[in-house]
Amino acid sequence: MTGTALGSYFSNRIKRKIAICDDLIKLCDRLAVDMRYKQSPIIPLVLEYTDGTNISFISKENFYSNTTTASILSDKENEQIGDFIFSLGKTDSKNQINIIDAFRQYMDSIKKEYSDAYKSKSKVYITFGMCGGLMLSLLLI
Length: 141
Hints:
By secondary structure, this protein is mainly α. The radius of gyration is 19 Å and the shape is elongated. Helix 1 (2-37) runs antiparallel to helix 5 (93-140) and helix 4 runs antiparallel to helix 5 (93-140). The chain contains 5 helices and no strands.
């Protein structure tokens, strides 16, 4: 039972990483549309979107100091997210749209990596977890 739970844990961890990437991609889409047409104040717009999502780790402080965010993604990816959030609102709208589009492409590639890993590893994690649980139960009998 514990082995199966461990396999599910690692499988779900990859799913949560994919969900974070999805929410960051949606944030980029929303920001790009707003920058092209409305040009709302960026900080309230981002904070309104992130509230209650998988990217609620983004806070107001990330806009004022270039800090790494704290999510379950890798350190490099958290650093990229921190740099992106810190750069929002610092340039003119044309350059801002370019930055948003570049970050969206980066998150698309990261999401693809995690999706590929999920497809290949999730079944392995659960299978090894079940086999480990069976081996443990056989040893205890």
